[in-house]
Design a protein that fits this description.
This is DUF4191 domain-containing protein. The chain is of the alpha+beta class and 235 residues long. The chain is built from eight helices and four strands. Helix 1 packs across helix 3 (61-92) and helix 2 (36-58) runs antiparallel to helix 3.
Amino acid sequence: MARKANTEGADSAENAGRLKQIALTYKMARRSDPKVGLVVAGVGIVTFGVLLGVGFLIGHPIYLGILGFVLGLLAMAIVFGRRAERAAFGQMEGQPGAAAAVLDRVGRGWTTTPAVAMNRSQDVVHRAVGKAGIVLVGEGNANRVKLLLAAEKKKMARILVDVPVHDIIVGNDEGQVPLKKVRTKMLKLPRVLTGPQVTAANDRLRAMGDLMSNMPLPKGPMPKGMRMPRGGKMR
């Protein structure tokens, strides 16, 4: 009995936490998308109404009504998820490190490393490794980021000869990729590596080290007197 009570208590706490997360996500989305609630509710009502109407036409309103209710909830969840994601991207756009946050959401099969290169102006390059190869994602001033990307691509070519290296500059100008489309861009890249090849590439990159592991950064806020090394690029 005690074990059952503990299990029920854990389930209740998990459900409460999930509902709280949904509520927080809704509040976040509503700040930049005030109509999100009306749109999501409208999608659910229309889906339910259409299937219920079809049910009356074919003489099975109960079955189609139940199906409409279930599909309505599913449609609401999908639309809410997409609009919430769009709102999140809108709030992140232009913020330092936004691209790194997007890379963390690309999905399974990708290993991401934030800030593998950075200059004194805080333009930064992040790295993701998957079956498409290596993707370098730069954010900041386009001209300076191109220099960082070129240096990183040259370094990758020396270390991993047979692994393709792609580069993306986050932005809204010509030749750049908007923040909200970075994930889609990466997922559309052709998959040319096998699982073991991806593992081997990650192992070699880890052995090489990166910006965050090579620099003895102090914990807490950066000291006011701390200066970037000459040459512009951290390694």
